[in-house]
UniProtKB/TrEMBL annotation, chain A:
Native species: Cytobacillus praedii
Hydrolase is among the record's keywords: no
Assigned protein family: Belongs to the ABC transporter superfamily.
PANTHER family reported for this sequence: D,D-DIPEPTIDE TRANSPORT ATP-BINDING PROTEIN DDPF-RELATED (PTHR43776:SF7), TRANSPORT ATP-BINDING PROTEIN (PTHR43776)
UniProt xrefs under InterPro entries: AAA+_ATPase, ABC_transp_ATP-bind, ABC_transporter-like_ATP-bd, ABC_transporter-like_CS, Oligopep_ABC_C, P-loop_NTPase
Residues annotated as domain ABC transporter: 19-265
One Pfam short name: oligo_HPY
GO molecular function: ATP binding; ATP hydrolysis activity
Gene Ontology process terms (BP): peptide transport; transmembrane transport
Keywords from the UniProt entry: ATP-binding, Nucleotide-binding, Transport
Protein name: ATP-binding cassette domain-containing protein
From TrEMBL, chain B:
GO BP terms, alphabetized: peptide transport
Species annotation: Cytobacillus praedii
Family: Belongs to the ABC transporter superfamily.
Membrane association type: Peripheral membrane protein
Reactions mediated catalytically: Ni(2+)(out) + ATP + H2O = Ni(2+)(in) + ADP + phosphate + H(+)
UniProt xrefs under Pfam families: ABC_tran (PF00005), oligo_HPY (PF08352)
Domain ABC transporter: 7-254
Coiled-coil ranges from the UniProt annotation: none
NCBIfam families found in the cross-reference section: oligo_HPY
Family annotation (SUPFAM superfamilies): P-loop containing nucleoside triphosphate hydrolases (SSF52540)
Protein name per UniProt: Nickel import system ATP-binding protein NikD
InterPro entries cross-referenced by the UniProt entry: AAA+_ATPase, ABC_Ni/Peptide_Import, ABC_transporter-like_ATP-bd, ABC_transporter-like_CS, Oligopep_ABC_C, P-loop_NTPase
Entry keywords, A to Z: ATP-binding, Cell membrane, Ion transport, Membrane, Nickel, Nickel transport, Nucleotide-binding, Translocase, Transport
Automatic annotation (TrEMBL), chain D:
Family indicated by similarity: Belongs to the binding-protein-dependent transport system permease family.
GO biological process terms on file: transmembrane transport
Organism for this UniProt entry: Cytobacillus praedii
Transmembrane segments: 9-30, 96-122, 143-164, 184-204, 242-270, 290-314
Protein name (database record): ABC transporter permease
Membrane topology qualifier: Multi-pass membrane protein
Record InterPro entries: BPD_transp_1_N, MetI-like, MetI-like_sf
Automatic annotation (TrEMBL), chain E:
Keyword Transmembrane included in the entry's annotation: yes
Iron-sulfur recorded as keyword: no
Membrane topology of this protein: Multi-pass membrane protein
CDD domains, per the entry: TM_PBP2 (cd06261)
Domain ABC transmembrane type-1 stretches: 81-269
Pfam family, one: BPD_transp_1
GO CC annotation, single: plasma membrane
Descriptive protein name: ABC transporter permease
Highest taxon of the lineage: Bacteria
Length: 331, 334, 502, 320, 287
């Protein structure tokens, strides 16, 4: 379609975990069962774009994040950044990959080892990657970064241990540390869900500003659909490891086509008490991602499901420019 | 008036080793029959402490409770164990957040509910209990199949529903739900909230909903109380408070929630961090983070200012409820 | 009657039951396959030998009423008692004797087998006469017939094509002794009942029980509590306490088995006789005797156990304790003190656990250190020690005990050139010659002469140093009389035929 | 559940096999052999030694010996004791009964008494009795059992003369029938007391701490909120949940006891496997040693597996 | 008033909670001191065989009497501290290092390796250890070094199990994940993040292991399998056993010394567990 290859190309990436068999010996005989945490996800992103990923708990959002950051090796598929295969890159130059791709985690209280001071925590990665020549130089870099993030007085904060700082401060440090590498691709996995509501906005705004500054591409994973809409340009809706709908964030929120997206958004309450809620009920609990299929994974809970839905996984359809739905009955 | 619960000058202090934590400080609150009150506040603001103290479930050895809590003519603070036993579950029931641990893992669900039912109706027949429970289970959208299952065989959403059903076995007058839907995902939460609202209409219970998510309150309550660092900032009808928040804290809080639809407004939030609850602080507790704070705010605790049926604890307003200084109209800088 | 049927229910209190402590389970009830200390006390009461040892470890008649040695020393003739019967009523004849020793001679794995190498043939002129034809003269052979694994076994029971070990008859032994086998409870006890037809008269007891109590302390408690009656060789530490107990009769029982240290003469350091002499001089035997054995086992200086007094040389003996002298010996021999005041270091002493040996070794280590001789102790469990010392011969000095009676011929078996038990590999042709002469002579005085001379050689060469004698008190319930210990010259050691309640 | 049990049994078998092999190697590598014992203390005849080695097959390569032994063991034939010339299996069966009698009685008494004490202490946490119990638990937990046994013998047997000091039955008066049982019980008192005293603290502590822990669980708070009586909460909910760690500990300590009781058996001259083992070690009675070890491993594995299964029936979360 | 009573109760509980650790720490310090200062504290050389045999308490200036060889019991008890501490520390060290490495590697690297190792650990947990130790010590050399090594080699599984569980949960912790994204290597992570953060339960377990080591050594000595070249309490009991009625002090005080020492280690272990148990350190981040 497009002539120019996209900046980031997630190409049919899958992460299947073997169903845990606790027995070494029996696992050999048993038929392998797979938890398809992420199943053939393909997304293309441009430089500086922000993609929001939403979906129920357990649908594979975090796994997708981990696979993209190569914290887990995907079972299948690859990611290309500027047409460079990250799989190859990982093999050849792991450190370079690490500098290119960074991830911000959900729980700031747990992002740093409790035994080191912030200074040690910040200096280590710089040393590993050979940024700055002397420790003094590296310290300078860190102090500058902290102050730019509003953490003042920086050298006082550097002396503290993680547990002596608040969640908001820690999350800022976490983001700032990731930015030290000037990454091209940032994955933010629910970066504010553990934080007090009142400090969330500042963190979000900081993340947005920094990534704009560095022109980095961001994947923003969240439970909070309203927040995702606020943050992102594009939204991908996941269900049991599959992306079921993808498009501009406003399109997805205002005009969802996939029955699951429709249910999700209708169930999402707003702070506006006047808003008329008309929730779409879907039956049952989300099934486990153990050997799902063969039909549409959502079919068993879908209010629109027909017989065919149970037989073949629906193909992705572009219903309007850049709005893709994996449903045969989206109309 | 059909007042159900009135809390006056209610304080809860944790005494741990040499350290004291003033978790709830001199709060006042009234709840009428049929109300559904949402208490919102950030983590650590004392919401759960308040609820647990009302239920008298805090370990007596390291907590101090003072003040009054009149509940259907009795002061919950002063009740002895026997009186408490009679009130519990019959009149006052609770649903906790951690539904995963809300039931004994080694007993089947049905017998556990039967035991709870028999606490107040020791002679109830099995059939009677069974019919009551299946009725309640259906009310929260569960099949009677769960009766014979163990807790670990249910999902979080189902357990939460079971907990809700259990809380209703004796038709309590007041039901406290502490973060009862927080751990659930959007779809399940939406559905359960919907079920709660409907069920309430059938069963006629008064409900206190504790949460940090204002949208939950917006969707399921008619009144809201905003709590900050152990104190109430603002109490009133959901419609008034959310549409027209008076307290600077409430405003800041609301501006931290982006809206799902409509215009994308810039999120602002509140700068600064929660105060240390181990230190007793003079003046308005929010003053250190408040951009309108005056010297007075730092020295004097604000008294509740009644406006219509809402109450605001803020020095910005006169006792009549007007802004004392129009310039100080709480707006937030961009 | 005669089989081992219980009388049912509780036995009447008036029954005379004697309970003897046993240190462990017997390995087998066939007394001739292996040498087993735990079984030894028991089988002596079930079987007879040609001759036996009395409480003073002298040879006395058993099945043989008398015996004679031919002039050339190549034939020994035993005359059997004619009224001896097996427990099943059949008479004991010389054929049984021949069968027994012939079988042992055929089986290399039987304990007495190699000792029978000296026997050319066994002849039975009549039912009550046995003649051993020897290849070489050896009078000590008679004494050996009174030791382990020489019990006469019934041919008519055992000669059924099966080996003794696998023979079911070995599990329920039939002997000719004063008691019959009744019951064996593994780990608990062995019960014997009296043989009413015993040729030396019916035993006085109604029941003889060997109760298995491995732990010494427990056994002492049991004796004090009256739960057992006989405890042979009580630990010396309890002697005083038991002597003070009116219900217990204590009797000293001595054995010709002195504790000794043996030098490995293949070791360069120890090949020097001066060093050996110095070591021998620096051992405080008095202290050891007093502290470790409470004075029960007394210092031994003779190179042959002084208990066998006719054969022991009490003039030419191992040196007296004298630290100054020991140092002088070393100085004179050219040894030099090192910085810590030691003339010699790095000598190891291998000791096995038990019998107070580690204590003894510790005391020796202390006095040797005073004399400037550095010793390191190596204590192992007996079997490991045995492997190291006797099989691998990997030691410098070792400490051991071991029976050296009742005949001084034992000297040759311990220190003769190339002999199996000569761990230190001592070799002195003169000594070999003297002991050979001693064995070939029937005349006791002559023999004493030869052996005393041999001991003089030992005292000079010091291939070993005797430390203390072996003796122990037998603690017995005072209510019983005619216990084995009382039988010197009259009945066998560990034999209960005449035991009775006062 | 079935799968679970199979898995556990399989693991148990594997363990036994591995342990068995290690054991074979250790025993065979050790210096000394049974031949010395058979030959007697004062015998060093090399011809006799070779003859005996041939007879028992020790001249064969170790691998061959192992293979032969393994093959026989699989068919239930543990061989014949070299020293006692008796079926190892028969010897062990004879001895294992007293050991089990001692161990099981002690373990069951200890678990009951200890748990009751723990329950009491947990209910009255911080009370004088709790402090006394806890203090005593530390002391007895730290006590070498053999030492305690000695002290008990001195007090109750020597000084007071109340109880027999050794063995399982009175040798002098051989009892039968009911008297026999009574006699055995009297003899069991001291060894059982020793074991019980050192085992109680284990159950006391685990019971107390798990009760205290369960008491803080959310579901207990919920049950309190329903107004259910503390008694019922305790008896039905706290206990049932708090018993789980006790089951596990019971298994572990029972397994430990089965093998660790050797010391006590020595002190009290108890005719069990422990003393048999010690003698077998000293005499290097290979078949007996291997047999005991095998049987012990099997007993331990069986206990562990049984306990796991019991645990699974108590805890529905285990069944998968 | 009511609250006063509550207050004292709370204080009592806290002290009760801490008192174990306090007693444990002071106890260990005391033992260490005694161990270091043995030559100064002991009135006599315990390896000296004096003329006073089986003296009673206080006789001839022997505070706790003498044994049959004329050694001063009090001095022996004092020197015995060294042996006990040495056995405790070295065997626990071996056990801890082995356990931490094996468990840490298995837990952190996971996968098939972990399956194999954890099955091995499970199997090892089923091994009757005392029996094994006894066997090895009886059959091979019973030097104190061997005793320590064998105890260490047979007790690591519990440590491995603990650290493996820690590693399993730590490797899912955010700070480990974030260390990976910072480009740290696997070994760096194992030694910098996993082991230091997961070591506390092992520490507490190790003190318990130390008490068990002391008891095991005593048990071996009691069976006559102790090292005669050093003075140990277990051996004193073994030796004193034959004098238990006539010279009760030999075995009795050694037994008391064992009980006290082992108790101190238990107290320390419990105290550590107590303090490290998250349930006791309430209060969220911040403050
Ligand atoms: N290491 C793993 N091994 C096996 N299964 C896993 C593993 N990690 C994740 N899963 C499974 O993969 C699925 C997706 O998990 P994931 O954490 O990505 O969900 P999520 O969308 O991030 O959920 P949440 O919103 O709760 O964070 C889940 O069913 C989970 O159980
Ligand atoms: N047992 C306790 N001892 C001491 N302080 C406590 C205890 N429990 C809670 N606190 C403190 O009391 C304050 C109020 O806690 P509480 O749990 O009531 O807050 P919350 O509003 O329910 O928060 P969340 O939204 O996180 O549930 C917090 O600062 C907390 O740290
Ligand atoms: Mg996630
Ligand atoms: Mg809460």
């Amino acid at each position: 379609m497009k002539t120019k290859s996209p900046f980031i190309k997630i190409d049919k990436i899958s992460m299947w975990y073997p169903q845990k068999s606790k027995n070494l010996f029996m696992s050999i005989r048993e038929e392998r069962k797979w938890i398809k945490a992420v199943d053939q996800v393909s997304i293309e992103l441009e430089r500086g774009e922000i993609l929001g990923v939403i979906g129920e708990s357990g649908c594979g959002k975090s796994t997708l994040g981990k696979v993209l950051a190569r914290l887990e090796n995907p079972t299948n598929g690859d990611v290309y950044i500027d047409s460079v295969s990250t799989k190859e890159l990982m093999k050849k130059d792991t450190k370079k990959f690490r500098r290119m791709v960074q991830i911000v985690f959900q729980n700031p209280f747990d992002t740093f080892t409790p035994r080191d001071t912030i200074e040690q925590i910040l200096l280590r990665p710089l040393k590993i990657h050979g940024i700055g020549k002397t420790n003094a130089e590296r310290r300078e870099i860190c102090i500058k970064a902290l102050e730019s993030g509003g953490l003042r007085p920086a050298d006082e904060i550097m002396k503290r241990y993680p547990h002596e700082l608040s969640g908001g401060q820690l999350q800022r440090i976490s983001i700032l540390r990731s930015m030290l590498f000037e990454p091209k691709f940032i994955i933010a996995d629910e970066p504010v869900s553990m934080l007090d509501v009142s400090v969330r906005s500042e963190i979000i705004n900081m993340l947005l500003t920094l990534s704009k500054e560095k022109n980095a591409t961001v994947i923003f994973i969240s439970h909070d659909i309203a927040l995702t809409r606020y943050v992102s340009d594009k939204i991908a809706v996941m269900y049991l490891g599959k992306v079921v709908e993808y498009g501009d964030s406003d399109t997805i929120i205002n005009n969802p086509k996939h029955p699951y997206t429709q249910a999700l958004i209708s169930n999402c309450s707003s702070i506006d008490p006047d808003e008329q809620r008309e929730i779409i009920k879907i039956q049952g609990e989300p099934p486990t991602p153990v050997n799902p299929g063969p039909g549409c994974y959502f079919a068993s809970r879908c209010f629109k499901a027909s017989k065919e839905c149970f037989q073949k996984y629906p193909a992705a359809t572009e219903v309007s420019e850049g709005h893709i739905v994996a449903c045969d009955r989206w109309y | 008036m059909n007042q159900l619960l009135e809390i006056k000058d209610f304080s809860v202090t944790y005494v741990n080793k040499s350290k004291k934590v003033y978790a709830v400080k001199n709060v006042n609150l009234k709840i009428n029959k049929g109300d559904s009150l949402g208490i919102v506040g950030e983590s650590g603001s004392g919401k759960s402490t308040l609820a647990m103290a009302l239920l008298r479930l805090l370990p007596e050895k390291n907590t101090q409770i003072t003040g009054k809590a009149n509940f259907i003519g009795k002061d919950l603070v002063q009740l002895n164990q026997k009186e408490l036993k009679n009130i519990r579950w019959n009149e006052l029931a609770v649903v906790f957040q951690k539904s995963m641990n809300a039931l004994s893992p080694v007993h089947r669900i049905g017998p556990q509910i039967e035991d709870i039912y028999r606490v107040h109706k020791p002679n109830a027949s099995k059939e009677e209990i069974f019919s009551r429970i299946t009725y309640l289970l259906r009310l929260v959208n569960l099949s009677e199949r769960v009766y014979t299952l163990y807790p670990h065989e249910l999902s979080g959403g189902m357990l939460q529903r079971v907990s809700i059903a259990i809380s209703l076995v004796h038709n309590p007058k007041l039901l406290i739900m502490d973060e009862a839907t927080t751990a659930l995902d959007v779809v399940t939460q939406g559905q359960i909230l919907d079920e709660i609202v409907k069920m309430e209409q059938t069963l006629d219970v008064t409900r206190i909903m504790i949460t940090h998510d204002i949208s939950v309150v917006a969707a399921s309550c008619n009144k809201i109380a905003v709590m900050y660092a152990g104190e109430f900032m603002e109490i009133g009808y959901v419609k008034d408070v959310l549409k027209n928040p008076k307290h600077p804290y409430t405003r800041g809080l609301l501006s931290s929630f982006p809206s799902l639809k409509g215009e994308k407004l810039k999120l602002t939030g509140i700068s600064g961090y929660l105060p240390n609850l181990s230190v007793k602080q003079e003046g308005c507790i929010f003053a250190p983070r408040c951009q309108h704070a005056t010297e007075k705010c730092k020295q004097e605790k604000p008294l509740g200012v009644e406006m219509n049926e809402n109450t605001v604890w803020c020095h910005l307003y006169s006792s009549g409820g007007e802004l004392i200084n129009e310039d100080q109209k709480p707006v937030y800088k961009d | 009657s005669g089989t081992s049927t219980e009388t049912g229910g509780k036995e009447s209190k008036s029954d005379k039951v004697l309970i003897v402590r046993s240190g462990g389970d017997p390995m087998s009830f066939n007394p001739d396959t292996i040498a087993d200390d735990n079984a030894y006390a028991i089988v002596q009461n079930i079987f007879n030998r040609l001759v036996k040892l009395d409480a003073s470890k002298q040879i006395i008649p058993d099945l043989a009423k008398d015996w004679e040695v031919s002039d050339d020393g190549l034939a020994i003739t035993f005359h059997l008692k004619d009224n001896a019967k097996w427990h099943d009523g059949k008479p004991v004849t010389s054929k049984d004797v021949k069968y027994t020793f012939d079988t042992i001679k055929e089986n290399k794995t039987y304990y007495f087998n190699s000792r029978l190498d000296i026997v050319n043939s066994i002849e039975v002129p009549d039912d009550h006469t046995v003649v051993f034809k020897l290849n070489d003269p050896d009078v000590s052979f008679i004494a050996d017939l009174g030791w382990y694994a020489t019990f006469i076994l019934p041919e008519h029971v055992l000669n059924n094509g099966q080996s003794w070990e696998d023979n079911p008859a070995s599990k329920e032994p039939i002997g000719s002794g004063p008691f019959k086998f009744s019951e064996f409870k593994q780990g608990v006890n062995i019960s014997l009942i009296p043989n009413k037809d015993y040729h030396d008269g019916e035993p006085k007891l109604d029941k003889l029980v060997f109760s298995i109590i491995p732990d010494e302390q427990t056994a002492i408690q049991a004796l004090i509590n009256g739960e057992i009656d006989v405890y042979e060789n009580v630990p010396s530490s309890s002697v005083d306490q038991m002597k003070a107990n009116g219900k217990i009769r204590m009797a000293l029982n001595e054995y010709p088995s002195p504790a000794r240290i043996i030098f490995n003469l293949k070791n360069e350091t120890l090949a020097d006789v001066h060093l050996r002499k110095a070591i021998a001089t620096a051992i405080n035997k008095e202290e050891i005797s007093k502290k470790v054995y409470n004075g029960v086992q007394v210092p031994e200086y003779s190179m042959y156990p002084s208990l066998i007094d006719w054969a022991a040389n009490t003039e030419e003996v191992s040196p007296q304790f004298n630290i100054v002298e020991a140092k002088k010996i070393l100085e004179n021999a050219g040894y030099k003190k090192d910085a810590n005041g030691f003339y010699v270091t790095g000598i190891t002493l291998d000791v096995f656990e038990g019998s107070g040996y580690p204590d003894m070794a510790n005391l020796m280590k202390a006095t040797l250190a005073e004399a400037g001789i550095g010793i390191e102790l190596k204590v192992s469990e007996f079997n490991a020690w045995n492997q190291k010392v006797s099989v691998e011969r990997d030691f410098m000095i070792e400490m051991q005990g071991g029976f050296m009676g009742p005949d001084p011929a034992a000297l040759a078996k311990r220190y003769g050139t190339g002999v199996g038990s000569n761990y230190g590999e001592y070799s002195n042709p003169k000594f070999d010659e003297l002991t050979a002469k001693g064995a070939a002579t029937g005349d006791q005085e002559m023999r004493a002469q030869y052996y005393k001379e041999a001991q003089t050689l030992l005292a000079e060469d010091l291939p070993f140093v005797p430390i203390v004698t072996y003796a122990g008190y037998d603690a017995n319930n005072a209510a019983y009389v005619n216990l084995p210990i009382d039988g010197a010259g009259k009945w066998g050691w560990q034999e209960y035929t005449y035991t009775d309640i006062q | 559940m079935k799968k679970y049990v199979t898995r556990r049994v399989f693991m148990g078998l594997l363990t036994i096999f591995v342990v068995f092999t290690i054991n074979f190697i250790i025993i065979r590598l050790a210096p000394g052999d049974p031949i010395s014992t058979i030959m007697g203390k004062d015998n060093d005849d090399p011809i006799l030694r070779t003859a005996l080695e041939e007879k028992y097959g020790f001249d064969k390569p170790m691998i061959t010996q192992y293979a032969i032994y393994l093959k026989n063991a699989l068919t239930g034939d543990l061989g014949i004791s070299i020293i006692y010339n008796k079926e190892v299996m028969a010897m062990i069966t004879e001895r294992i009964v007293p050991t089990l009698l001692l161990v099981l009685t002690a373990a069951i008494l200890a678990v009951i008494i200890g748990t009751l004490m723990g329950m009491y202490a947990a209910k009255n946490e911080g009370s004088k009795i709790d402090v006394i119990f806890s203090g005593a638990a530390y002391i007895f937990n730290s006590m070498p059992a053999f030492w305690l046994g000695l002290i008990l013998i001195i007090i109750f047997s020597s000084v007071l003369g109340l109880l027999p000091s050794y063995g399982m039955i009175n040798t002098r008066d051989a009892h039968t029938g009911f008297d026999y049982i009574l006699d055995v019980i009297v003899h069991m008192v001291l060894p059982v007391c020793t074991l019980v005293l050192v085992e109680i603290p284990i159950y006391f502590r685990i019971a107390k701490s798990s009760i205290l822990q369960v008491t803080n669980e959310d579901f207990i708070v919920t049950l309190r909120a329903t107004g259910m009586s503390e008694r019922k909460i305790f008896n039905k909910y706290i206990l049932r949940n708090a018993i789980l760690p006790t089951i596990t500990i019971f298994g572990i300590s029972l397994a430990y006891l089965i093998t660790g009781v050797a010391l006590i058996e020595t002190v009290f001259a108890w005719p069990g496997t422990g003393s048999l083992m010690l003698t077998a070690i000293n005499q290097r009675d290979y078949p007996t040693l291997m047999g005991i070890y095998l049987i012990m491993s099997i007993s331990v594995a069986v206990v562990m597996v049984l306990v796991d299964i019991v645990y699974a029936t108590f805890d529905p979360r285990i069944r998968f | 008033m009511l609250s006063v009573k509550k207050n004292t109760y709370a204080t009592f509980k806290v002290i009760n909670g801490d008192i174990q650790l306090k007693l444990g720490v002071f106890g260990i310090l005391f033992l260490l001191l005694v161990g270091i200062l043995s030559p100064i504290l002991a009135p006599l050389d315990p390896y000296h065989y004096g003329q006073d045999i089986l003296n009673g308490l206080g006789v001839n200036g022997h505070l706790l009497g003498t044994n049959h060889l004329g050694q001063d019991v009090f001095s022996m008890i004092i020197y015995g501290v060294r042996t006990s501490l040495m056995v405790a520390v070295i065997s626990a060290l071996i056990s801890a290092v082995l356990g931490i490495l094996i468990g840490g590697i298995a837990g952190y690297f996971g996968g098939k390796l972990d399956l194999i190792v954890s099955e091995c650990i499970n199997a090892f947990m089923m091994v009757p250890t005392f029996f094994l130790i006894l066997l090895v010590i009886a059959l091979f050399d019973n030097s104190i070094t061997n005793v320590m090594i064998v105890i260490g080699l047979t007790t690591w599984p519990s440590n491995a199990k603990l650290i493996r569980a820690q590693a399993l949960s730590l490797r899912e912790r955010t700070f480990v994940k974030s260390a990976i994204t910072m480009g740290e290597s696997k070994t760096q992570i194992l030694f910098k993040y996993i082991i230091p953060n997961g070591i506390f339960p092992v520490l507490a377990n190790t003190t318990i292991g130390m008490s068990n080591a002391i008891l095991t050594e005593a048990g071996l000595s009691f069976l006559g399998l102790g090292d005669p070249n050093v003075i140990s309490w277990g051996q004193m009991i073994f030796m004193g056993k034959q004098y238990i009625t006539s010279a009760w002090w030999i075995a009795t005080f050694a037994g008391v010394a064992i009980v006290l020492t082992v108790t101190v280690f238990y107290l320390l272990g419990d105290g550590l567990n107590h303090v490290l148990n998250p349930k006791h350190s309430n209060g969220k981040g911040g403050e």
